[in-house]
Amino acid sequence: MRVILNGQVLPVNIRVNRDILITLRSLARTLHWKLDYDTTKELVYISTQNIAQLTERLPAILEEPESTRLTGKVICLDPGHGGQDTGAIGFANSLEKENNLAIALLVKDRLERNGASILMTHDEDTDIASTSNSQETAAARVSLANESHADIFVSIHNDSFADSQVSGTTTYHYGNAESARLAACIQNSLVEGLGTKDRGVRFGSFYAIRYTAMPSVHIEVAFISNPEEELLLSSADGRNKAAEYIANGIMRYFKV
Ligand SMILES: [Zn+2]
């Protein structure tokens, strides 16, 4: 969460929690500040002076980079499924393709703010191969990643199982050491951050991570078939957190 005080971004990026928001709200009441938050963008605006200034600087603030830690890195993000292929359908009927795309776009924002160049296999609810054949779709995504010489390839998914009690996070790779290291960085960051059950880093033979030429992983963020985890995957707050920890895992991988 970033704090904008009288139109200036404070040099802190704190984790949002209920206590902080309650404290801020009561401070604002006591001191006659104007307080506003945008939970999807994780921004808190505080104005101790002129209320009109409050949100007018927003576009400039969002353009401001957080760091240059990932400058020069090209990252290919692959939101799983899309178009006719909905992926799994949740306990309360949310669609995996929508959760994947929303999380991937948030990961993109975070990585870009730290200097990375992002290539998306698709950035709206479509499929790049315009076909319902999942093998062809995967092949098109792989070619895109390979032709762009991306440094890493990250495919984002939701897990699903017949038993709605089953939960947790898994990250798959296709055997090479760098892919396994990337998978471990992302898996650890997600599990620590989200507090989900650690189902581990595993070998997986998914088409996209099998044929991409760079270190590649397939993330199953959580189970869409589990009511609690579906909420995590489909809510603005949960998606933001998932994106934050995936991005942190990627930064850990690059040791920046
Ligand atoms: Zn999937």
Automatic annotation (TrEMBL):
Residues 142-251 form the MurNAc-LAA domain. GO terms for cellular component: outer membrane-bounded periplasmic space. SUPFAM superfamilies: Zn-dependent exopeptidases (SSF53187). One of its GO terms (biological process) is peptidoglycan catabolic process. GO terms for molecular function: N-acetylmuramoyl-L-alanine amidase activity. Keywords: Hydrolase. This is N-acetylmuramoyl-L-alanine amidase.
